[in-house]
């Protein structure tokens, strides 16, 4: 199958790579073109312009950064909608706004095309290993017949949640769960360190007991090594928490835990927010 993949960053490069490994003909586009080099070396074709994507592909995937990037890629002056045709399928896997996902789906439906939202969870390691959890919103038949067989190369736990936007709502609920577990890891480390425990032994014991979590297992070792390379960029996590808080405001519900974590992450230095992974919350606690 001919597949276009837009956005070959931390997540996109690994995810697109699995489709290449599965034998599909892959076309890749990224804003900073050099980030497509590794996939091109492995046999992918370089796509020069986003607007040409629908001309090359049976199906187009995107894994970009912010809702404004998703909007530009899909609805912008040189975006996918420009050349999209009846029956074509577009799948955004970025973490973005549910309202925007609904809008994109409605715009593509006007020409008889399908736009689905399939955000993911499982981190950079899940993307590398093809073990992501994937939450789908959009047309159910298209999801089951056309999209599921492809995303099965990217993830293990793949669930359909309903019409366009529902994938993104699910992802935001997931980010709310992660928010407090990131803080719980940093605070338990702070306490353990302050009372003088052996930190490696502490991590081994707690991560495999009831204090364990995905955040503890994935990011605990990186905190202990002082490795702040992104995995999951702080600035993306702040974006996700802001999106969740905006939805809470619309529904008039209050999530004080989420509000606190958002405040702590936004208080980190600009340099940290722009370049570090989410384990850098340890810097707030001087770990
Ligand atoms: P990333 O490394 O910043 O990758 C995003 C890529 O999209 C970058 O290479 C960027 O290009 C490209 N891009 C952005 N806007 C574009 C545009 N308008 N046109 C073309 N390319 C564009 O981020 P990531 O970690 O892969 O995350 C991608 C998305 O997945 C985000 O929405 C994030 O919240 C979500 N997510 C991340 C994780 C994780 O653990 N990392 C887990 C689940 C979900 P440039 O190189 O020019 O910036």
UniProtKB/TrEMBL annotation:
InterPro entries: 6-PGluconate_DH-like_C_sf (IPR008927), 6PGD_dom2 (IPR013328), 6PGDH_NADP-bd (IPR006115), HIBADH-like_NADP-bd (IPR029154), HIBADH-related (IPR015815), NAD(P)-bd_dom_sf (IPR036291). One of its GO terms (molecular function) is oxidoreductase activity. Residues 165-284 form the 3-hydroxyisobutyrate dehydrogenase-like NAD-binding domain. SUPFAM superfamilies: 6-phosphogluconate dehydrogenase C-terminal domain-like, NAD(P)-binding Rossmann-fold domains. The active site is at 171. Keywords: NAD, Oxidoreductase. It comes from the Bacteria. Residues 2-162 form the 6-phosphogluconate dehydrogenase NADP-binding domain. Gene3D superfamilies: N-(1-d-carboxylethyl)-l-norvaline Dehydrogenase, domain 2, NAD(P)-binding Rossmann-like Domain. Belongs to the HIBADH-related family. This is Phosphogluconate dehydrogenase, NAD binding domain protein.
